[in-house]
Every structure is written in structure tokens, then in C-alpha cells.
Specification:
The chain is 0% helix and 42% strand. The chain is mainly beta.
Length: 69
């Protein structure tokens, strides 16, 4: 049993760049997001990087839970 305080909260982020998609393990990966979209990801998804003093998160399209309109 977890308390409400212990529950992981999703994160809302803005898409700054999108890769070209392609084929992974024989399956075509189609990019459904575009630059400027607001997306929801789980709190610990992706890879954290620091670039020019700014903290960024790189996520796979499969780690995006929703696009917020």
C-alpha cells in the first residue's frame, strides 16, 4: 500500500526537438509529436542531460503518455 504522497506524479514537458523516426526491431516508429507540443511522461522516464547549462530529458516516443492540447 502506498500513500498518496508516495505516488509518482507524471511530468508535463515541452518538445524542443523530434528525431526522424525509422525502423526499430523490424517495426516502423512514426513520430506523432512535433516541436512545441506539450507532453506528459512518467517522472523517471528518459535520459537526463545537461546542455549549455540547461537540463533536458531525452525520451523515446513510447515513453510519452499523452499530448496535451
Amino acid at each position: 500500500i502506498l500513500t498518496v504522497a508516495a505516488k509518482e506524479k507524471p511530468e508535463v514537458s515541452e518538445v524542443l526537438a523530434v528525431g526522424p523516426g525509422g525502423v526499430v526491431d523490424g517495426n516502423e516508429v512514426v513520430m506523432n509529436v512535433k516541436v512545441g507540443d506539450k507532453v506528459i511522461t512518467s517522472k523517471y522516464s528518459g535520459t537526463q542531460v545537461k546542455l549549455d547549462g540547461e537540463e533536458l530529458t531525452i525520451v523515446r516516443v513510447g515513453d510519452i503518455l499523452a499530448i496535451v492540447e
